[in-house]
């Protein structure tokens, strides 16, 4: 298990350089593996440039799209075409612009009856892909988990003071009441079951929360993550400059 103090920090000059670096890092990880390559995608605004970069540049021609599988770190419980939908953002930036087989996107949008039903359906799909109901740290669920960092220290939809922080017996949890729209989120066990976890952090507004995160402030949900694999912070200079 990797703690914050063992995380690798890379500081890039600006958001475009950050996107290019993480795209190259992702491509190297994908090509180094000879079979299925599973990525948990972050929502929010920061990763959009990365997703566009993967679809638009030399990465597109050398990425192993046929064996790469794409999952959601979290999703808002809104229609797939809603401006708040992570699926919509990733569809616009990546899924509609790269040769990704529909069967490699998990899950494809559905119209579940409730956040709880959506969480249960997603968990079933994860377990089916993984091939077991219990996570084995020697066989992580994901090859890469991409995460963002909220100004309150949340990541995915693990918000401070919410019940999902304590869920260790499920892979996906419904989050109701923390935000205007209900969410579903991977829980700590699922997020941690990854060969590599990478936070993408950009902008001067993230400077203070990144400093707290790197100091291991465990009041922050992001600081409590203990991946079975490696932990990376990719930050631009605006976010990484220390006060
Ligand atoms: O669905 C979401 O919103 C994300 O999963 C969330 O955890 C996000 O990564 C952070 O809020 C940072 O968002 P920004 O990249 O927009 O700052």
UniProtKB/TrEMBL annotation:
It comes from the Bacteria. It catalyses: 6-phospho-D-glucono-1,5-lactone + H2O = 6-phospho-D-gluconate + H(+). Pathway: Carbohydrate degradation; pentose phosphate pathway; D-ribulose 5-phosphate from D-glucose 6-phosphate (oxidative stage): step 2/3. Its EC number is 3.1.1.31. GO terms for molecular function: 6-phosphogluconolactonase activity. Pfam families: Glucosamine_iso. Belongs to the glucosamine/galactosamine-6-phosphate isomerase family. 6-phosphogluconolactonase subfamily. Hydrolysis of 6-phosphogluconolactone to 6-phosphogluconate. NCBIfam families: pgl. This is 6-phosphogluconolactonase.
């Amino acid at each position: 298990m990797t703690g914050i103090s063992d995380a690798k920090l890379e500081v890039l000059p600006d958001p475009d350089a950050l996107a290019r670096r993480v795209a190259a890092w992702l491509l190297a990880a994908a090509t180094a593996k000879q079979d299925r390559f599973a990525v948990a995608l972050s929502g929010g605004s920061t990763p959009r440039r990365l997703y566009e970069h993967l679809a638009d540049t030399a990465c597109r021609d050398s990425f192993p799209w046929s064996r790469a599988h794409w999952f959601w770190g979290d999703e808002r419980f809104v229609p797939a075409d809603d401006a708040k939908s992570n699926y919509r953002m990733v569809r616009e930036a990546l899924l509609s612009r790269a040769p990704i087989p529909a069967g490699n996107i998990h899950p494809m949008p559905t119209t579940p009856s409730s956040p709880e039903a959506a969480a249960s359906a997603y968990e079933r799909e994860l377990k089916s892909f993984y091939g077991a109901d219990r996570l084995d740290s020697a066989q992580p669920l994901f090859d890469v988990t991409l995460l963002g960092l909220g100004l309150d220290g949340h990541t995915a939809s693990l918000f401070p003071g919410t019940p999902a922080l304590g869920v260790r017996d499920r892979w996906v949890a419904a989050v109701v009441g923390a935000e205007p729209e209900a969410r579903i989120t991977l829980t700590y066990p699922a997020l941690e079951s990854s060969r590599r976890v990478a936070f993408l952090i950009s902008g001067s507004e993230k400077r203070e929360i990144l400093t707290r995160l790197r100091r291991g402030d465990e009041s922050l949900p992001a600081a409590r993550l203990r991946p079975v694999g490696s932990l990376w912070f990719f930050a631009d200079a605006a976010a990484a400059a220390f006060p």
